[in-house]
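Handout, section B. The chain below has 290 residues.
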Amino acid sequence: MSDKVFNGDFFKNLENISLKARMTINNGAAGGRRSKAKGSSVEFSDFREYTPGDDFRRIDWNAYGRFEKLFLKLFMEEREAYINIFIDCSKSMDFGEESKAKMAQRLSAVFTYLAINNLDRVCINKISGNSLIPSTSFMGKGSFQQALNFIEGVDFSGSTNLWEAIKKKPLKPRAVAIVISDFFTKGSIESLVKYFAFNKQQIIFIQILSEEELNPKIDGQVRLVDSETMEEINITITPKLMKAYELKLKSLTSGMKEQLKKYGGSLIQVSAEEDLQKVVFEKFSKEGII
């Protein structure tokens, strides 16, 4: 996955962008974002121990001479943002000619890279059934390969209940919550949004759908099999039924948009077949999340 996501110009372009944390960060360890916290100097703020992959130009060599350790010098009251990425690991995500799961993994890797490149701290959370499996906290470019290994180890199977799983996760206030899913899930999406808002999260929902789901090309008598429960149903596809499906899908998406809008959140719908660069540099930029 890493070879396909991070190569050539795409890799270089990621160096120049970052997630836009809209909340004011007034706590947390030293990092790369401005804070309201007051310091002892107009310019200098703090030190943070150097992590392999950090910008060596920010190393304080005077501190190295005194402590024989590498430290980064931080300015303008910089603080880290804490970013949680939640990946829906249900079997329905492993659907489509171009797998939704593959796009979910790629976008998780992109968000992780953007976070650690900006000196933020990121945790990747796998959601399976009602359970949540968190990674360790990743920070610094030296941890990116470890994060990739965690992402690549995702097993997409069974069903998920996003609300039941995520509500078990204690959330740091004034953080960023990114949920990557098709949102074909049990449980209440509205309750999930309210939980994030109550914990003062900047909320970003990425809905990944396959082209077959966005523009289905089936008709006549068919047997549909639920990929998660393996339940089967025989139905006749008619233009009226297809119209009902289209309206139902639009209702799901518009309903989430309205719920998120109340709390300043964002919903971005992505096709599993879309070009990754277009998603990141056009869609994410248009929505103002980078």
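Note. The chain is about 35% helix and 25% strand. Compare this with the example in section A.
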